[in-house]
Amino acid sequence: MWNNILILLIKTMTKKKTKILAIDPGTREMGVAFLEKGELIHYGVKSIKKEMSPHDTLVEGRKIVERLISDLKPEILVVEKTFFANNRNSSLLNAFYYEIKAIGRRKRLKVLSYAPNTVKKFICGDGRASKEDVAKVIVSKYPELKVYINNDRKWKQRYHQNMFDAVALGMRAVKRD
User: The pTM is what?
Assistant: First the structure.
């Protein structure tokens, strides 16, 4: 009996973490992707209302992240690192990035973060690859995303790029695990 319990305990402790929530943070649009065992289960872009105070923007973003974690129950949270610049929007984005990581830690998730050039190098073999190149590689792995790559409007292309960035982050985290 103890052997069975010990084997079950060891299997539980060594279980590979395969439920990954990837977030490309943004103060207007946030790309999200959920992968389980390397399969893309959920993807999209979550919008944050415009013309809100910085505090309200963070509150709204926090609600979205907490809802995603509650609904999807990931084991790993991966977030794209932000660049540090000296303007108001980047300060808000940096604060949101740290808030997302803090939420993940409070929820006892394994929290990872990667710089955009690290993800591009992993996906395309080139840290300076364009967003379009990254999207094309992702579509080759997940063909269901092809409808989002050729948009008739520039704003649609920019909008969906957030989702492609999140999927790329998730793919990077899958390979790491």
Answer: 0.86
Q: Please, are residues 138 and 124 in contact by the beta-carbon 8 Å criterion?
A: no
Architecture of domain 18-176: 2-Layer Sandwich (3.30)
Q: How many CA atoms lie within 13 A of 166 on its CB side?
A: 28
Give me the phi and psi of 113, to 5 degrees please.
-145, 145
Give the Cα separation of 77 and 133 in Å (integer): 25
Q: Write the pLDDT tens digit of every residue in 117-169.
A: 999 999 999 999 999 999 999 999 999 999 998 777 888 888 899 999 999 99
Are 46 and 177 in contact by the 8 Å Cβ rule? The answer is no
Q: Residue 29: which of 4, 60, 55, 3 has the closest Cα? A: 60
d(CA 88, CA 96): 12
Domain edges within the chain: 18-176
